[in-house]
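thought: user wants a sequence for this fold. calling inverse folding tool.
action: design(structure=
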């Protein structure tokens, strides 16, 4: 078992390189099996969610190998096993993309209901509605989503809610369906566009990704390609917020600044300076932080996956900020950890009222999920004294080399192995 130990109070200076996008990688890797061929994917992030999908594809009979540190080759010609058991699917949300991908290629898929971060109820009704409208029979049997079809036929599918996962899953199932599928009220996140570009590189015909109407004309078959994943919007945003919260001057490299506009706007409002370059942003902050109100929204709004990190910054900003969560029912579970560090935050349903305090104090805290874990790192970096973060396996799901990247910026952060007896005492 490992913890992060952070000695706070250092400003951050220097450069950080952003890795490939987690949420694109976890869609694009399963999508690769839609081609009965060899696919090469570059800019793969070294995170545990990616290791999990590789393990699943391996168990299915695909041949997955790393060509170099961030390039993967997937040969899915020999896939035999079209069933993904609970032991594999329960560790992360994106395991459900294998339903769409296998349904598309084999017209048959069995995948255990997915796991992932706990933000309240996470239904998959829209995914199932989409598969059914394309002509599949879908049943949930003993915790497995079982989907099969003689053939899939394109149709018009209206999403009752803007859902990243359902939009992606329907795209995956529809690329090899007969005729035209139209997804209305589609999600517009950067990773939806990245997935569409990847599928088009394999011979699919997808138009409109990035708008709320996506049109997919079914192809006969897809072929291999080489594709490079976009930079991670949320990893970049996390370093931007960290730089603004700690103060200093940080150049965040290998990003698409357009994807970061909603985050830049809020950091500027809070008192930081953000300069955009072609593929980098520079965040500096030398003056006091001001309150600002933030509401999470689907893209291009402020991302819900940046909400906990922003809460940390606002917890030491001058004045009272309102932080409103409009995507998930229950995404303030980390607030208890921050109040133990001295933050003054009241939560009422999907609204947090944050009264800025002068400083946070280091204590032992838990990463309650992936982005909450990132928020705890930022809290530790600005706090007085030592912060110990437990349950860092959540953070490893989505942040490549986080200790090294923050250390390069001058942070005092270490990954520390804890001996078994100590772990038992802590758990007790
Ligand atoms: C993805 C991201 C997650 C992010 C979220 C919103 C991945 C692997 N995860 O999650 O980090 O927080 O987008 O940006 O990309 N909903 C339904 N029915 C459905 C599906 C969703 O009602 O069938 C609702 C959800 O309860 C939620 C909203 O739609 O309120 C958005 O969820 P969705 O966009 O689907 O999130 P995920 O794809 O699971």
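)
observation: tool returned 428 residues.
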């Amino acid at each position: 078992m490992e913890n992060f130990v952070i000695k706070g109070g250092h400003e951050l200076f220097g450069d950080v390189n952003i890795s490939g996008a987690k949420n694109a990688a976890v869609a694009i890797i399963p999508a690769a099996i839609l081609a009965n061929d060899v696919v090469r994917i570059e800019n793969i992030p070294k995170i545990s969610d990616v290791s999990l999908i590789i393990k699943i594809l391996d168990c299915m009979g695909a041949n997955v190998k790393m060509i170099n540190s961030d390039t993967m080759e997937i040969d899915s010609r020999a896939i035999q096993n079209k069933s993904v058991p609970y032991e594999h699917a329960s560790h992360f949300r994106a395991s459900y993309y294998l339903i769409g991908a296998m349904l598309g290629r084999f017209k048959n898929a069995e995948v255990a209901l997915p796991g992932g971060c706990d933000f309240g109820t996470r239904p998959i009704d829209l995914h199932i509605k989409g598969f059914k409208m394309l002509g599949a029979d879908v049943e949930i049997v003993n915790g497995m989503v079982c989907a099969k079809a003689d053939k899939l036929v394109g149709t018009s599918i209206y999403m009752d809610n803007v859902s990243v996962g359902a939009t992606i899953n329907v795209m995956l199932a529809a690329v090899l369906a007969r005729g035209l599928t139209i997804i209305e009220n589609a999600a517009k996140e950067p990773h939806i566009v990245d997935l569409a570009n990847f599928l088009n590189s394999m011979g699919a015909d997808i138009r409109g990704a990035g708008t709320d109407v996506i049109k997919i004309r079914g192809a006969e078959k897809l072929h291999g390609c080489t594709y490079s994943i976009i930079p991670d919007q949320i990893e970049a945003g996390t370093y931007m917020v960290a730089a603004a919260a700690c103060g200093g001057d940080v150049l965040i490299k290998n990003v698409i600044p357009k994807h970061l506009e909603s985050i830049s706007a809020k950091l500027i409002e809070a008192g930081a300076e953000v300069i955009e370059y072609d593929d980098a942003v520079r965040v500096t902050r030398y003056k006091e932080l001001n309150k600002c109100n933030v509401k999470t929204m689907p893209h291009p709004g402020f991302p819900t996956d940046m909400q906990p990190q922003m809460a940390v910054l606002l917890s030491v900003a001058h004045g009272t900020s309102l932080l409103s969560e409009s995507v998930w029912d229950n995404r303030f579970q980390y607030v208890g950890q921050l109040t133990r560090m001295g933050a003054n935050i009241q939560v009422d349903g999907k609204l947090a009222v944050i009264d800025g305090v002068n400083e946070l104090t280091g204590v032992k805290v838990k990463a309650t999920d992936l982005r909450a874990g990132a928020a705890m790192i930022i809290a530790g970096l600005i706090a007085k004294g030592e912060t110990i973060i437990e349950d860092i396996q959540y953070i490893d799901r989505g942040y490549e080399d986080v200790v090294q990247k923050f250390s390069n910026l001058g942070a005092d952060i270490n990954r520390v192995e804890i001996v078994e007896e100590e772990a038992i005492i802590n758990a007790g």
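thought: summarizing for user.
answer: Here is the designed sequence. The mean pLDDT is 95.
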